[in-house]
Amino acid sequence: MTVPEPFPFRKCGTSGVHLPAVSLGLWHNFGSDDDPARARKILLRAWELGITHFDLANNYGPPNGSAELTFGKILKHNLKGERDHMFISTKAGYRMWEGPYGDGGSRKYLVASCDQSLQRMGLEYVDLFYSHRFDPDTALEETMGALDFLVRSGRALYVGISSYDPEQTKRAAAILRRLGTPCLIHQPSHNLLDRWMENGLTGVLREQEMGCAIFSPLCQGILTGKYLAGIPDDSRAGSKHGWLRPKDVTAERLEKVRRLENLAHARGQTLAEFAISWTLRDPIVTTAIFGASRPVHVDEAVRAASQTSFSREELDQVDAITL
After folding, report:
1. Which of 32, 103, 145, 243 is least surrounded, with the fewest CB atoms within 10 Å of its CB?
2. pLDDT class of 238 with cuts at 50, 70, 90
3. CB-based contact 179:140 (threshold 8 Å)
């Protein structure tokens, strides 16, 4: 199959930012423990196919920080002069270093972490900086105030939040609006097996006219079908690193995957293409951030970006399986 032309971009809320319908996330496969040649091939394939948005975080690796280092090296040696054609995001919020200032949502941690991320990537600024998670131990005014400071100090052009629930999202958006630095985008997890954002968050994003960059559209690989015959040694669930554990690959989930795969094939898609296309069916989603362990996975994601129309019957069949 050939890659569709032209590549689809979507407007991010009411801002002037347009993001590719699919974006490359560097959560896995870009750490210093991974093959640097493979990482470079994946990223360059994404760039070649028209993907301009690359999503990172301070703790991506392993070890922490190494995905940003890998990205910085590729940017310097293989994509020199292309910075203004890219939209680069990073985040902070989870444990990055030991001690009282290496985790959470404090101004101290977020600003220090942003500075370290810029140094690792060799950048003067990031296009987007996220609060990676809501921190119940820090006043939301402090966390949002730190994001506002990052923009006003030139470290970031825009700010966003990730994995905030509907009420937290409304509060964060209101604070940032008062400060004069609107919340550009929310980054929640969303896929066929994890539909939590539909229970209130989708409505809040529409109400706030905010962009939405969903992550884990393939449920960390479960929605590729790779686990139907067992857990491969080179998979996320087979690795000692990452968030997906063997206990997450349940028989109930795999039965849903089998049924969804039949729907995908009926549409002439692979399961992975089907899963990504489904997340993009709602125009509230600005972009789907996918991960890749091989360049061919990038091709799949790009094909999925042009097949986002679903019939009522197809959507009802999906709901019957997943809800």
Report:
1. 243
2. very low
3. no
Q: How far apart are CA 213 and CA 25, in angstroms?
A: 11
The 8-class DSSP code of residue 11 comes to E
Q: What is the rounded CA–CA span in Å between residue 108 and residue 189? A: 27
Q: Report the alpha-carbon distance of residue 53 to residue 86 in Å, rounded.
A: 6
Domains in the chain, CATH or no CATH each: 9-218+284-322 (3.20.20.100)
321: burial class by Cβ within 10 Å (0-12, 13-18, 19+)? middle
Tally of CB atoms within 10 A around 257? 23
pTM (2 decimals)?
0.94
pLDDT at residue 7, as a whole number: 83
Its sign, for the CA torsion 173, 175, 178, 182, is negative
Within 55-129, residue ranges assigned H as helices are 66-78, 107-121
Pairing state of beta strands 183-187 and 126-131? unpaired
The yes-or-no verdict on residue 272 having pLDDT over 60 is: yes
Evaluate the CA torsion angle 127, 25, 192, 298 in order and state its sign. Answer: positive
Query: pLDDT digit string (tens) for 36-86?
Result: 999 999 999 999 999 999 999 999 999 999 999 999 999 999 999 999 999
Q: From the CB of residue 148, how many other CB atoms can be counted at a distance below 10 Å?
A: 18
Residues 6+ apart with CB under 8 A from 299: 1, 3, 45, 49
Distances (CA, A) of 221 to 69, 154, 238, 245: 24, 36, 11, 12
What is the Cα–Cα distance from 311 to 69, expressed in whole angstroms? 43
